[in-house]
Amino acid sequence: MSTPATAAPNAATGPVNSRGRVIVASLIGTSIEFYDFYVYATAAVLVFPALFFPNTEGIYALLSSFAVFGVAFIARPLGSILFGHFGDRNGRKGTLVASLLTMGIATFLIGCLPTAQVPGWAFWAPALLVLMRFAQGLALGGEWSGAALLATENAPANKRAIYGTFPQLGAPIGFIIANSLFLILSINLTNEQFMSWGWRIPFLASAVMVIIGLWVRLKLVETPAFQKVMDQGEVTKLPLGRMFKVSWRELILGTFIMLATYVLFYLMTTFTLSYGTAARTAEEAAAKAEATGKAFDPTTFTAGLGYARNDFLLMLIVGVVFFAIFTLVAGPLAEKFGRRKTLIAVTLGILVFGFLWVPLFGGGFAGTMLHLILGFTLMGLTFGPMGAILPELFPTNVRYTGSAVAYNFSSILGAAVAPFIAVALWQAAGGSTVLVGLYLSGAAVLTLVSLLLTKETKDVDYEGQSS
Length: 467
Prior knowledge:
- It is a single chain.
- By secondary structure, this protein is mostly helical.
- Helices cover 75% and strands 0% of the residues.
- It has one domain: MFS general substrate transporter like domains (Growth Hormone, Chain: A).
- The longest helix has 32 residues.
- The radius of gyration is 22 Å and the shape is globular.
């Protein structure tokens, strides 16, 4: 049961994390994790269909690449259970260090993999790619929740939603860094150089960022809220079982609260990159295939917008700037009006945006750019409050597990299948994206129902709450 918020966690006795350290540690970790994740997402569109699935053509190679992309989302709930267990048993700090290491090692190794075109690696190259992608998902399954708790469990009174936006800001920052690096490489390398070795650089470069992130996180002390749980002897031996016993309803609601956010983001990034860079006509596609020495099958061709890869990456980066800005705007709004009211209003906006998908997307450069800006603005407004509302649904001693499982169960329903479903709907509609927009609106309806069934969590006694 919710009770009024108590004094700021910084009033707790013992060593505490400074505000600057909390902000940097929660932000840098998710920035690195999301950078690693989006490096793969971009490569899944631009590189992997040709290098790891050379025996498939056109839309089927892209679908194969997206299928591997979805493996991480199957791993994420497992990661939430694994890291959530240790986060609720042993503390937030050590668990966050372990998740960052797991993600960093997996991403670095992807950059070292031979491709399926290397003799003897036709099977093993895709298989190892799947394994590394699984490890990425496992790590991200534990990263987000830990970073959100690091921020909110150290937040002053009436500042949780604002502090909760700091780890959320890691998503647009990671996306911008990852895609900017791909853009720089694409501009400065020939297509042959980029496909031969240039694509590996973003994966290998993640090692430097991971070292920085580890240095920051190793300087942290335990959050006051979890320290209080340990001091009072309320640590749960089996957090997952306890969470399902006392918070199963909150788990279901939290999962669907996050659904529209996930669908929107992966449509706005992964799918739009596929659609935006696909040839407008079969003749263009055939000419492009001939220039790269590949066969063209007109039966698998699906029309897109025909933008050059570099041009559309730049357009996406501009759109994601709005994502970052409105993630920060969302925190004060959720603090003033409440998480529930803020998210209901934004979700209604997402529902309407789904119906406007076709009139905007494809309406020339101006229409496409407006589509990206509006979509990413809504993304920031819906993603920002998630760092507060999902953890607030759960008691302190199962908070890591509960928020992580809800967040990552939603990733299966929303993110894992979103690019795959969108590509299939795009193909089924003969090049139109009208069904893609309706798919987004349908996800928004489910999220809206969940928000209407959820109580406001703004005044939950975050430090004293236990199950």
